[in-house]
Amino acid sequence: MTETVHTLRAGIGTVHRGSFDATLAPVLRVESGDVVELTTLSANAEELPPPALGFAILPEHNAVLANVAPGEGPHFMTGPIEVAGAVPGDELVVEILHVGLLQDWGWNAIAPNKGVLPEHFPRLRRIHAAVDRARGIVTMPWGLELTAAPFFGIIGVAPPPAMGRVTSNIPRAFGGNMDNKNLRPGAKLHLPVFNPGGLLSLGDGHALQGDGEVCLTALETALTGRIRICLLYTSDAADDLTRV
Questions:
Q1: Are 235 and 90 within 8 A, CB to CB?
Q2: What's the CA gap between 222 and 94, in Å, rounded?
Q3: Residue 243's pLDDT band (boundaries 50, 70, 90)?
Q4: Which class for 15: exposed (0-12), middle (13-18), buried (19 or more C-beta within 10 A)?
Q5: Of 5, 35, 142, 168, which sits most exposed with the smallest number of CB within 10 A?
């Protein structure tokens, strides 16, 4: 059977910033087992590279910065995606099929009183690194070349309605800002459903990260991805049927 593939490109109307909220309307509806090809953005205005570096800013990125209000956290999330038939008590299985680099730069920052060693870094420092999409290589400003290993730092569903709008900074039972570098092709992430449709969002693209964001960020960048979303029925109303 031919699988259904949807395209969801980050832009005005498909990106929400800084928060998860059960009241956000879905921007795409899929059936269990469908594949979604999507893009994500990263960088607020102050994190954009200066023109002198010669990097290209995606047109949709500029449009989102100008037209989509920021939220409590700094992240850009593409979604929410509604999964037909999902009800509270069910489970979504997000299979990572592909993650790729979307632009020619990434950024990294360390801020005062943040990260693992805050007393050693009293001043804000922000750097921009070149991303070679064809070679899959990141070049740091001092010339060091590193192999890119992109993944989505944020994958999450809408939180329980009683929580209201919550910051994108803190991962919780709904997923969110987990920054797990193992969420790469071949991985499957299981998430609980708290709202009809699940309302899945992805974002916070990383070109490269170690075992956590020890300074404050990874090498943040825009990504392209391909995921399969399946519904695992666990509610009583579904008679314990499974589909994964």
A1: yes
A2: 20
A3: very low
A4: buried
A5: 142
